[in-house]
Each structure stands twice: as structure tokens, then as C-alpha cells.
Amino acid sequence: MSAQHRLDARGLICPLPVLKARKILLNLAPGDVLTVSVTDAHAPKDFALFCAESGHILKSVESKGEATDVTVERGQK
What we know:
Strand content: 35-45%
Shape: globular
Mean pLDDT: 96
Number of helices: 2
Helix content: 25-40%
CATH superfamily: TusA-like domain
């Protein structure tokens, strides 16, 4: 069963949310899931590009009022 993790990156501007998430993902097992709360409007696109380049899976992007939750599954790499 995969583990669920959270990162609060609200108030940070890109690329900081992606960089902080990358550091956490490096320490997770493949299949583990990280949900990142962001307020930077560009963050979802940055996460999509990051996942495409790094082999992680962008599971969802969900608006939560002023914030957006970006959920990423740790890839096999």
C-alpha cells in the first residue's frame, strides 16, 4: 500500500514548490503519493512539466478555494 504525504507550499512562488516537492519525492518509495498545496497560479503547469521530465505521475490538480492541491505519485526512477 502506498503512503500518503503532504507539503504546504502556499505562498511560495515557482520554482520553489516544485523544488521542495522534488526533494521529498527523492526520499519516497515508488508508488507513494505527495499532495502539494500551492497558491502560485503557474505551479500546476510547472508540476506537469516536472512530472513529464522526471518520470513521476501527475495524479490530480484540484482547486481548494485560494489554494490548489497538486497530487503527484512517485515514479519508478
